[in-house]
Amino acid sequence: MKRRFFHNRTAVATVAFVLLIGLVGVFAPVVSPHDPYETDILNKFARYSAEYPLGTDHLGRCVLSRLIYGIRPTLGLALLTMLGTIALGAVMGVLAGYFRGAVEEVIMRVVDVMLSFPSQIMVFAVVGLLGINVQNVIIANVFIKWAWYARMIRTGVMQYRDRNFVQFSRCVGMPERFILFRHLLPSITSDLAVLASLDVGWAIINISTLSFLGLGVQAPVPEWGAMLNEAKKVLTSNPVQMVAPGVAIVVLVCCFNLMGDALRDVLDPKEVER
Amino acid sequence: MKRYVIQRLLMAVPLLMAISFVCFVFINMIPSNPAEVALRVQQTPIITEETVAEMEEMLGLNKPFLVRYFHWVLGCLKGDFGISYVNPARTVAGELARSLPATLQLAAASFVIVTVLSIPIGFLCAVYKDGWFDKLMRGIIFITTAMPAYWAGLLLMWGISVKLGLLPTNGNGTWKHMILPSFTVALSYISTYIRLIRNNMLENMKQDYVLYANVRGLPQRSILVKHILKNSMHTCIVAMGMSIPQLIAGTIVVENVFSWPGLGTLCISSIFNRDLPIIQAYVLLIGVLFVVFNLVFDILQTVSDPRLRKED
Q: Rounded mean pLDDT of B171-197?
């Protein structure tokens, strides 16, 4: 599998790019040329220059620095959302797929109800009812997405539950815990990885949308959606403001989508058998 | 057949119940007391135990949970969704009814755009698979799926309204106001349908009946249009029908970008004002629309496609 990964150029390139972005975000204070909160009102809407590579915004803050610091909330919250979603989905999916019976019935009916709600609306509903807060944005996103993962993981678990190697483990008296963690979870990891990397892009768009509407990350924090919200106010006078954060979102989301497709090629179990 | 339809209808009932229950539980799950929230948003100067109790009485919050739920569901069935916290003189139903037409207008316009654009583009992509048009379209689709709707809206607004001065930037009134917002909504859905139609047609092209039509020496055009496209449209029409509520839900962001006075704008302003009954009713409305459209198109598909019919 490692060899196939390094042979797949898209996979290597996208993973490297995501890691690079992540590192830049982590080391934002070292990498960014200015303080993202430092205002310089005399130098607002500056053009691209050596000192301000992407110019300055309506308060004279360095756009590049804000973009770099913006990686933290944008990417960080998206990853946190996915982590929560997968954790909750995995617990529910494994419970349903493994234990069957009444547990499964209850979980799957709840999943059905969750899936029948339009996800976009549910995010707004949860944020609206719990209050405007970054923490609630994550809760909302996990809340609407876990059902998809629960269903997928359940299908995966059911597929492998009756395979010979699991049957054998059971026959020789391995504890249930062993079967769950050493057989079933590793078997569905690859499917999960593909789905999750495709959904990171979705989470980035969703969180930035909420921030853009003023329901997520709040103003002075340099989140990309929040930056676009500020850029919207000066759309007519300074349209350049909306280029940098928008392009950043599109590039990052494209990268995650490509990565998901590439990982699917790398991890496809059909390929393994060949 | 009849049995299937009845079964499907009966299955929708518990789903609708569950949706209404979730909506109801939500408003009762919030950390603060709804009566207190209502008092706060009305900017009552002093909030005492008595005023809270009075408000609870007025909003019917002092009754037991299940009683309140059934009361609320019965009210909803009669079209009474309660009163707005922000402005008690207004009913939630009235507020929704006021904003609904604008949203439906927008969703209808986007639906037309999606249909008109995605069918021919998907058709051409499938016919000229791997040609320059297909490649170009695949590139565009790839980028539009990664593009947040609000950014696309801002770009269109800047390019077409500000730079070229062709269309108004926001508000509604004439048909001109509708073009940009509806196109923005459509943009995020077109890519899905182009891909759907393209893949469906490619799938159909591999079928035996196409080979047979070719053997019979039918002209390519009639094979493509009369056989392949017609057969591919089945699934597409159903998928499009099921996506109508999604289009209505999808307007929420775009409406706010273009200040379109519809449900989306109402919903966001209600979130800022903590006007919980409006949010609740909005979610319920969209949830019910989802179930109903899914039901109708699922049944339609079964009726129209003999392969799915399970006679017993």
A: 81
**pLDDT value at residue B169:** 66
Q: Which fold, A1-31+70-274? A: MetI-like fold (1.10.3720)
Higher-scoring residue by pLDDT: B34, B69: B69
Sequence ranges of the domains in chain B? 17-92, 100-304
| Nearest residue, CB atoms, A129 vs list B18, B268, B276 | B276
What is the tens place of the pLDDT at every residue in A12-49? 888 888 888 888 888 878 777 777 777 776 677 767 77
Question: Span A100-114, mean pLDDT?
Answer: 82
Closest residue in chain A to residue B24, using alpha carbons only = A129
Residue A91 is predicted with a pLDDT of: 86
To the nearest whole number, what is the mean pLDDT of chain B? 80
How does residue A137 score in pLDDT terms, banded at 50, 70 and 90?
Answer: confident
The number of C-beta contacts closer than 8 angstroms across A and B is 124
Between residues B137 and A30, which one has the greater pLDDT? B137
Q: Which of helix, strand or coil describes residue B83?
A: strand
Interface contact A120-B250, CB threshold 8 A: yes
Contacts of A236 in chain B (CB under 8 A): 162
Q: How many CB atoms lie within 10 A of CB B76?
A: 21
**Residue found under tokens 């924090």:** A221
ipTM of the complex: 0.82
Which residues of chain A approach chain B closer than 8 Å at the C-beta?
A: 109, 112-113, 116-118, 120-122, 124-132, 201, 205, 208-209, 212-215, 225, 228, 231-232, 235-236, 239, 242, 246, 249-250, 253-254, 257
- Window 152-171 of B: residues touching A by CB (8 A cutoff) are 154-155, 157-158, 162-163
- Tell me the average pLDDT of chain A: 81
Q: Which pLDDT score, from 0 to 100, does residue A273 have?
A: 44
Helices (H), chain A: 2-7, 9-26, 28-31, 63-99, 101-116, 119-130, 134-161, 164-171, 176-178, 185-212, 224-233, 243-267, 269-273
Would you give the DSSP letter of residue B32? Answer: S
Contacts of B205 (CB under 8 A, 6+ apart): B126, B228
Hey, are the CB atoms on A254 and B276 less than 8 Å from each other? Answer: no
Q: From the CA of B15, how many Å to the nearest CA of chain A?
A: 6
Averaged pLDDT for residues A66-85 = 88
Q: Give the C-alpha distances (Å, rounded to integers) separating B130 from B9, B78, B92, B202, B259.
A: 44, 55, 52, 12, 41
Q: Which fold has domain B100-304?
A: MetI-like fold (1.10.3720)
